[in-house]
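Hi, here's the filled form for the chain we discussed.

Project: internal
Contact: R.S.
Residues: 223
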Amino acid sequence: MTQQTWTAVDRYLEDLLVGHDAALEAALHASVEAQLPPINVAPTQGKLLHLLARLCGARAILEIGTLGGYSTIWLARALPADGRLVSLEVDPKHAEVARDNIARAGLSDRVEVRLGRALDTLPKLAAEGKQPFDLAFIDADKANIPAYFKWALQLSRPGSLIVVDNVVREGAVIEADSLDASVQGVRRLNELMAAEPRVSATAIQTVGVKGYDGFALALVMAA
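And the returned structure, exactly as it came back:
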């Protein structure tokens, strides 16, 4: 199997099961025009996030890592009219592009993009004392994902779902002596999830238009 095959299958599934959407395609186009890195989730993955949020009956969603807002739109569309999504983004340019994309999709009333380092904004979010998040999607720098996961868990409730992207690293996750900070961050995350009694977790390898990687799912079992 090759990348060419993986991409072709993804395109087939996208055309058949995801379809074309003006707001989502405009968000991708705007991200390219703004020269944002092409690391947004694939359309089939975006649809999966949407379905997971709907399965959770999510009314409040936390996203760590906004980029151009593509995954944000997928997630926010699963919310009821009075739902809320808080997305954390460190890069001002990314945040500006995302806000424009979210507004074009008609979702500004339920999405807030907060600018700043997530490790600075997460404690402030916790201090606000609002309702816990029903779903958290972590798609930011991998060196810090163990800390992001801890905060997501703190801001969750029993029954909440935490999704972490890019946890296979083209198979490098098995390299215990890797000098790559992202690989080591993912390994620490896996060890943390395995040792954390409050969650039940798994991870899935994936191939597709984004190459070979995977994602982790952690169901919060106890507060």
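Let me know if anything looks off before we file it.
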